[in-house]
């Protein structure tokens, strides 16, 4: 790959190396420079600029990042579209992320152009949380490096995957001595129930027995016979030896002690046991508190269906110092999974942007004659249905539809996968439908893609490209697709612009806000001519396909 300074007049077709201004417009690095761009740069006084040019043996940054990301993505993980050489992986379900650290190191050692960063192995994640990011550092990666990375990743267990949490029916044994207060037992039960609820699990049966080997054995046997798995045993007195009351009770019931103790503090006095195929855990007393401790690490694996062996417990020492110390305050009052430091609490875990799609389909269709353009047949289904199908095939969610003229027919044509909102003032113009749809957006979104119901050729890949580019933190809060230097539809808007969007009126669309917010605009190059084509007239649609209704 060539990278360096060239005269502006020789830069056409090159990739802009550094962001710069051309008059009132801001050209971002990575832009493929057109003849019009060169003219604008020359008029702005630029004589020499840095550009990159791909050569034989190079793979463009987005293609390279996407290929590596696809190859390392395992079950219950999703690869997002690549943008600026970055492709992110997100969890599809809550669970534990598994990372093959040895192969990750090998992958990162192939070439400096390709880097992969992941969460730590066994880290609990929520649905939508970022698991890994692939970043191609320059504007291209060597083809041999990409192919070697794909070869390394394929034919083996996935490098990154999520083990989903599944509901468990837990048996709970609480032992007591004469001095044990009922409040202690109640607090223990509540702490366990709180932990289990996070994973959709519950206490199925409970036994409160004397702190006696025979009583513990009887309780374990009863709970196992009752279908409880796993079984947790809290001793009224701390277990200090593998022959103490709780381990001895398990052995007497016919089970076995696999390991006693763990290199995690708090949580040292945990017992790992088994009775046939049922895990039996002697729980350390620290787990009576909701604060993070070694038992939480074991519980997470049990709920994710990850086998736990003696060796696994013995390898938990790295990062196993969980005790609160003055130099590392821990915010654990929110529950056992809140074991994070103050800095991490201020910066939530990266996640997939929550972006809705809003399809505007309320217009009068006056230029289409007696028929309604959105109901016209195109390739065997209504024009509108194509738009809906492409939107719902993307990761945009929810998909909302604004109806107006001939609302019942339009709603029926859209199919069952959208939520329809009627705009009774649709005759006032496009802005009224936009306001109606924006008012119906659910809480918790980051952005919304505004789509037009008469643009059936916009692909779901374009929706994904816009979402991948969207990053308000990095100044990309308004994302619009571009092909051949021409801007098209749809456009993704960050919710920070909602108040201004709600103030639009008449037939003025959201595009009127692009100029005042040029610093937030990100042009996303797509290979999708559909972003330029709407079908307002029978002639336009006839040129695209055959009208049958």
TrEMBL record:
Keyword Magnesium, does the record have it? yes
- Check the record and name the InterPro entries matching this protein: Bifunc_Mopterin-bd, MoaB/Mog-like_dom_sf, MoaB/Mog_dom, MobA-like_NTP_Trfase, Nucleotide-diphossugar_trans
Give the superkingdom in one word.
Bacteria
Molecular-function GO term, any one: kinase activity
Keywords associated with the record:
Kinase, Magnesium, Transferase
| A Pfam family reported for this protein in Swiss-Prot or TrEMBL | NTP_transf_3
What SMART domains would the database entry show? Answer: MoCF_biosynth
CDD domains from the UniProt entry: GT_2_like_f, MoeA_like
* Ranges where the MoaB/Mog domain occurs: 171-304
Which protein are we looking at? 4-diphosphocytidyl-2C-methyl-D-erythritol kinase
């Amino acid at each position: 790959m060539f990278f360096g300074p060239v005269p502006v007049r020789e830069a056409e077709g090159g990739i802009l190396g550094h962001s710069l201004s051309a008059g009132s417009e801001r050209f971002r690095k990575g832009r493929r420079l057109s003849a019009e761009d060169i003219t604008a740069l020359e008029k702005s006084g630029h004589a020499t600029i840095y550009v990159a040019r791909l050569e034989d043996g190079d793979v463009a940054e987005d293609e390279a990042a996407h290929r590596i990301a696809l190859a390392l993505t395992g079950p219950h993980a999703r690869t997002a579209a690549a943008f600026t050489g970055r492709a992110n992986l997100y969890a599809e379900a809550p669970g534990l992320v598994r990372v093959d650290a040895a192969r990750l190191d090998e992958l990162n050692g192939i070439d400096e152009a390709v880097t992969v960063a992941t969460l730590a192995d066994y880290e609990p994640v929520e649905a939508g949380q970022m698991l890994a990011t692939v970043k191609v550092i320059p504007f291209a990666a060597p083809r041999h490096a990409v192919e070697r990375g794909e070869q390394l990743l394929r034919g083996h267990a996935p490098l990154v995957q999520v083990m989903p949490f599944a509901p468990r029916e837990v048996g709970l044994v609480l032992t007591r001595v004469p001095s044990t207060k009922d409040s202690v037992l109640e607090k223990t039960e509540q702490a366990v129930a709180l932990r289990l609820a996070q994973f959709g699990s519950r206490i199925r049966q409970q036994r409160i027995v004397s702190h006696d080997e025979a009583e513990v054995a009887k309780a374990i046997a009863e709970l196992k016979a009752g279908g409880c798995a796993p079984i947790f045993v809290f001793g009224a007195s701390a277990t200090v030896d593998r022959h103490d009351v709780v381990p001895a009770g398990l052995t007497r019931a016919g089970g076995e002690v696999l390991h006693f103790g763990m290199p995690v503090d708090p949580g040292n006095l945990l017992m790992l046991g088994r009775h046939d195929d049922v895990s039996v855990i002697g729980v350390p007393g620290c787990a009576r508190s909701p604060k993070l401790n070694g038992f939480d690490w074991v519980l997470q694996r049990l709920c994710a269906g990850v086998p736990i062996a003696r060796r696994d417990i013995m390898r938990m020492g790295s990062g196993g110092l969980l005790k609160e110390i003055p130099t590392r305050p821990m915010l654990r009052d929110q529950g056992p999974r809140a074991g994070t430091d103050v800095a991490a609490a201020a910066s939530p875990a990266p996640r997939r942007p929550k972006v809705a799609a809003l399809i505007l389909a309320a217009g009068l269709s006056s230029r289409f004659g007696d028929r309604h353009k959105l109901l016209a047949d195109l390739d065997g289904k209504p024009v509108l249905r194509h738009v809906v199908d492409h939107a719902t095939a993307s990761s945009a969610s929810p998909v909302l539809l604004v109806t107006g003229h001939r609302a019942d027919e339009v709603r029926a044509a859209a199919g069952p996968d959208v939520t329809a909102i009627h705009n009774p003032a649709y005759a006032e113009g496009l802005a009224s439908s936009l306001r109606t749809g924006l008012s119906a957006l659910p809480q918790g979104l980051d952005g919304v893609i505004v789509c037009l119901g008469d643009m059936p050729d916009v692909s779901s890949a374009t929706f994904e490209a816009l979402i991948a580019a969207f990053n308000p933190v990095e100044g990309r809060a308004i994302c619009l697709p571009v092909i051949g230097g021409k801007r098209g539809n749809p456009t993704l808007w960050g919710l920070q612009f909602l108040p201004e969007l709600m103030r639009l009126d008449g037939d003025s669309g959201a595009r009127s806000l692009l100029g005042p917010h040029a610093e937030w605009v990100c042009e996303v190059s797509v290979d999708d001519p559909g972003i330029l084509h709407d079908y307002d007239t029978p002639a336009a649609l006839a040129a695209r396909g055959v009208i049958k209704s």
